[in-house]
Amino acid sequence: MLPVEQQRLRIGTRISPTARVHALQVRDLLAKALPEVSMEIIPVETAAERRVGGFASLHGRTAAKRELDRRLLSGQIDLAVHWMKEVPSDSTVPEGITFGAYIRREDIHDVVVFRAGSPYRSLAELPEGAAVGVPSVHRCGQLLRHRPDLHVLTTHGDADSQIDTLDAQDEYEAVVVARSEIARPHPPDDRAVQTLDLEVMCPPVGAAAIGVACRIDDVPLADLLYTIDDPVTRSHITAERTLQHGLKAHYDSPIAGHCRSLPDGKLSLRGMVFTRDGKHMIEVCEQDAPNRPTRLGTRVAAALLSRGVGALIGN
């Protein structure tokens, strides 16, 4: 139960449509536990996000997290909602802040969204030289490894903006985006959308995971967040972010990492590093006990580094 003076929660989030959807998810989960508490979504915009394509940069992501941290510590917001794949693993959580909850992970698959009216229904059907838009280095390298004959272009903006651009311009046949980042419908209803197998497109570190930060000294709120925390997602994200940190990599690095739980309860972490053109790739997969995600992430990072991935990452 929150104290009387805290019967209104201010939930900070980035200003994008996808970020707002995430904040609403958190609000709805908290509202089930505290229906009597008023909750307000506080959109936070940075200068980097106001620039066209600004948030596509590492600087933009770091600036957004820093601004949410600042407002949280100053008491302007009570909670900060983060899309974990966009939280740099090399930036420490400021003193006084903790991730009180990780929401149960969504669908981590990437999808190929084809242009409205396209005669193609899958990557396999695309002709040699067909143009496909991708928003990140990790997708570019993996897509070209699977289809080196494609013409891969860099796209900008959130998933919905990329799909809008796909239809408005005759620049490419399809875009590859995360299913969990599509925040609204995109007609027509019969538009071709292909789900990519994880063996074809390993997701980035922190994919489809929402983290909720609060002040450490706000004990009643931290206790409340504990009730919506998903421990499995927390273990998976911890392993993946430890891997990323061990490689001294970030979101714009040519790496991918995915942790999952095996039927016997063990954690399995797959880490990949590759060149942008997909011609070179190094992959490591290790397992460990379910309560050892940090050790697992450290082991996979060390195994990759021992095979010379530092040169591919640029360290």
Summarize the structure.
This protein has helices at residues 17-33, 47-50, 58-74, 137-146, 159-168, 219-226, 231-246, 293-306, 310-313, and strands spanning 8-14, 38-44, 79-83, 97-102, 110-114, 131-134, 151-154, 174-178, 193-195, 210-215, 255-261, 267-274, 281-288. With 315 residues, the chain is of the alpha/beta class.
Architecture overview:
By secondary structure, this protein is of the alpha/beta class. It has helices at 17-33, 47-50, 58-74, 137-146, 159-168, 219-226, 231-246, 293-306, 310-313; strands at residues 8-14, 38-44, 79-83, 97-102, 110-114, 131-134, 151-154, 174-178, 193-195, 210-215, 255-261, 267-274, 281-288. The strands form three sheets. The protein has a five-stranded mixed β-sheet with strand order 2-1-3-10-4, sandwiched between helices. The radius of gyration is 20 Å and the shape is globular. It starts with 7 loop residues before the first strand and ends with a helix. Residues 52-56 have low confidence and may be disordered.
- Which sequence of strands runs across the widest sheet? 2-1-3-10-4
Beta content comes to: 15-25%
Low-confidence stretches: 52-56
By CATH's scheme, which homologous superfamily of the largest domain applies?
Answer: Periplasmic binding protein-like II
Compressed to H and E, one letter per element, the order equals EHEHHEEEEHEHEEEHHEEEHH
How many angstroms separate the termini? 48 Å
Number of helices, counting only DSSP H or I runs of 4 residues or more: 9
CATH fold field value of the largest domain: D-Maltodextrin-Binding Protein, domain 2
